[in-house]
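>> received
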Amino acid sequence: DRDAATKAERHLVLDGLIDNLAHLPKGWHPQVVCVSGDIGWKGKADDYALARVWLARLLDRLGLGFGSVVVCAGNH
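>> returned
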């Protein structure tokens, strides 16, 4: 992250996404999660560890496992 404000904004957006999924109607419950683009900020191990924690929280909210994830990563 460039600075604390950028990091806080990223957390706000990503955590907000997970929170909003709780309000989806049952007919809109995703069966697959597609991750596209860069997964890490600079391609370092810590980036991927944080991404895994967030993705695990997302999948838990959806009642899905990692087998329901399709990844088409960018260069990070």
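>> The CA atoms of residues 17 and 58 lie 8 Å apart.
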